[in-house]
Specification:
Blueprint (H helix, E strand, L loop, with lengths): L2 H10 L3 H17 L2 H18 L5 H14 L5
Length: 76
């Protein structure tokens, strides 16, 4: 039995709630291994963290964001 077949067999034995978690994890893996989607995801997470950060940290976060843009680490 291949790893693929063994994994499918294990998933088939799971309760529905856990199957949804496995499906979410598979979606995460597919996103992580697609560089364009992964960059979009990380940009979204960083933007969300910036908007949810404390206003006291706003200037520091903004400067960090601008520096990362300038270095080409992230794209706008």
């Amino acid at each position: 039995m291949t790893a693929h077949q063994a994994t499918i067999s294990k998933i088939q034995q799971l309760p529905e709630l856990l199957v949804h978690e496995v499906s979410d994890f598979v979606d995460f893996l597919l996103t992580k291994h697609d560089s364009t989607r992964w960059q979009m995801w990380t940009h979204f997470v960083e933007a969300q963290q910036l908007t949810e950060s404390d206003f006291v940290d706003y200037l520091t976060n903004l400067e960090d964001y601008e520096n990362r843009l300038a270095r080409g680490e992230i794209q706008w």
